[in-house]
C-alpha cells in the first residue's frame, strides 16, 4: 500500500510541476467566473425588464399576468457545466496522456520496474495521483462557483443547494475520469503515444461535440429562434400532445444523443442544478431517482474505464507498451 | 523556389499517410454528407410538426400563428455545415498545421533539412503551400459532396452552386488561420502536448468563450445553427461587453458571413441599440488569418535550426 501512495505522491508532484495543467486550470477558473458573470447579468436584465413592464402595466391600471422572474442560484452554473463537458474532458485526456508519456520519454519506468513494485501497484498509484488532482481541480471549480455566486450573483446557497452542487461535482469527477481512462488505455495500447492523444481528441470531438449537436439540431423546438413551441404559444403539455405524433422521430433523435456520455452527464447535472425548470423545488431524492439512467451511465462507464485500465496493465503484452514507443 | 515545392510535396505526402488525419477527414466528409440530410430531415419534420400544431389549435378553437420559418432558403439544409466547419473543420486545420510543424522535430531531421540549400522563408512557404493544398482539397471534396447532396434533395440553381462555392472558399480563409496557429505552436513549443494544446485553447476561447461574452450564448447553445434569442436588451453591461469584444469574436462573425453567403435568413441573437454590420466578418476574418500567418512568420524566424528537435 505504501508503494501505491509513494507513486501517487510522485505523480501528483509531477502534475503540479507541469505548466500545461496550470494553463488548463487557469482557463477553467476564467471560464467559470465569466460564465457566472454573464448568467448574472442576463438574470439582472430579465428582472429589470420585468420591473419596467410591471410599472407600465400599473400606469395603465392593469394587473400583471406573467410569472415573476425567480432566481434559482444554481441555474447560474449552466455555463460552468458546459465548460466541464468540453474542457474537463480535455483535462482528463491530457492527464491520461502525460502520465504515460512522461514515463516513456524519460525511460524511468524501466527503472521503477527493477524495484519490487508490481505493474498493478504502478497503475493504481498513477490512477490515485491523477484522481486526487482531478478531485482538487473540481473542488477549485466548486469554490470558484460558490464565491462567484456570492460575489457576482449576490446570492447565498442553502444546505440543499450545496449538497446538489457537491453531487454535481462528484458526477463531474466520474465524467472527467472516463476521459482520463480512455487516453490512459489508448496510450498503453498504442505503439505511438502521440497517436493515442490524437485518437482521444477524435473520440472527444464525436462524443462531446458532434453527437449532442446532431441531437440538438434535430430537435423541432430548436428550428426557430426562441423555440418553435413558444412561437406557436403552446404550453408544455400541449407540446407533448403534438409531439406524440412524432414518437419515432423523437426516439431516433434521443437515441443519437444517448450514445454520447456527455449528454447523460449534462442531463443529470442540469436536473440537479434545476436548469430544467421542472426540477426546481423537487426533493433531492426524487431528482436522483428520476435521473438513475443518466447516473448509471456515467458511473457505469467510469467503472468500466477503471477496469479497462486495470485489464490492459495486467496483460503480459502491456510490458511492451510500457517499455517501448515514442 | 524549388526548395519550397520539395518541402510542400513532402508535407503533403506525409500528412496523407497520417492515420489520424485520414480519420478526421473521413469524419469531416461523413458529416458533410450527413449535414445536408440532417438539415433536410429536420426542415421536413418541422413542417409536419407545424401542420400537426395547426390541426391541434383548430380543434381547440385557437388562432393560428403564421409558420415561423417561411423565410427559409432552399440552401437551409446546409446550415449545419457552418457549425461543422467551426467544430470539425477547425480542429482538423489545427491538426494539419500541428503535424506539419511537429513532424520534422519529432523525427529529428530539422538539422538535416537546414543543412541543405533552403532558407527559413522557403521552409515556411513550403509548409504554407502544403497547408493550403490540404485544406483546399478537403474543402473541394466537401463542396462537391454538398452540391450533389443538395441537388438530390432540392432543385438548386447555378447561383446557389456559386453560393456554396463561395461558402467553402471563405471557409478556407477561416480554416487556414487555425492551421497557421497549429504550425506556429508546433515550431516554437518545447513539448508536443503544449504545442497541440495551445492552439486548441485559442480555438476554445474563439468558439465558446467569446460568443458567451458577446451574445450571452451558453457554450453548447452556440453549436446550434439556429441560435436561441437571449433578451438582454436592457443590460448596459452586456451591451458594453458586446461592443468591446465582438470584433474579436471570429467564430460568430464567420457564422454570420457564412449565413450571408448561403443566403440564410439573418437572425440577430440580441437586438441592440448599436450593432456591428454583418459584413464586418468579410474584413476581420481575412485580417485574422493574415495575423496568424504573421505569427507563423515570426515563429519560423525564431526557430533555432540547430536546436529544433524535440527531446521529450
Describe what this molecule looks like in 3D.
The complex is a heterodimer of chains A (326) and B (312). Chain A contains 14 helices and no strands. With 326 residues, chain A is mostly helical. Chain A has one domain. The radius of gyration of chain A is 23 Å and the shape is elongated. About 2% of the residues of chain A have low confidence. Chain B has 312 residues and is an all-alpha fold. Chain B has one domain. The longest helix of chain B is centred in the first third of the chain and has 42 residues. The mean pLDDT of chain B is 84. At the A-B interface, α2, α3, α7 and α9 of A face α2, α3 and α7 of B.
Q: What separation lies between the terminal Cα atoms of chain A?
A: 30 Å
Beta-strand portion of chain B reads under 5%
Number of DSSP strand runs of chain A: 0
Largest sheet: number of strands, sense, barrel closure of chain B: none
Alpha carbon gyration radius of chain B? 22 Å
Q: What is the residue-averaged pLDDT of chain B? A: 84
Q: What assembly state would you assign to the polypeptide chains in this entry?
A: heterodimer
Instruction: Find the count of extended strands of chain B (DSSP E, 2+ residues).
Output: 0
Q: How many distinct folded domains of chain A?
A: 1
The share of residues in helices of chain B is over 70%
Class inferred from helices and paired strands of chain A? mainly alpha
Task: Provide the gyration radius of chain A in Å.
Answer: 23 Å
What share of the residues of chain A does DSSP label as strand, in percent? under 5%
- Uncertain spans of chain A, ≥5 residues at pLDDT below 50? 316-320
Low-pLDDT segments, ≥5 res of chain B: none
- By DSSP (H or I, 4+ residues per run), the number of helices of chain A equals 14
Layout of strands and helices, then pairs:
The complex is a heterodimer of chains A (326) and B (312).
Chain A: H1 2-17, H2 19-59, H3 78-106, H4 108-113, H5 119-151, H6 159-189, H7 193-218, H8 228-231, H9 236-243, H10 247-259, H11 261-273, H12 284-290, H13 292-314, H14 318-323
Chain B: H1 2-17, H2 19-60, H3 79-107, H4 110-115, H5 120-153, H6 158-188, H7 192-215, H8 236-245, H9 250-261, H10 280-302
Helix pairs in contact in B: 1-5, 2-3, 2-5, 3-5, 3-6, 3-7, 3-9, 5-6, 5-10, 6-7, 6-10, 7-8, 9-10
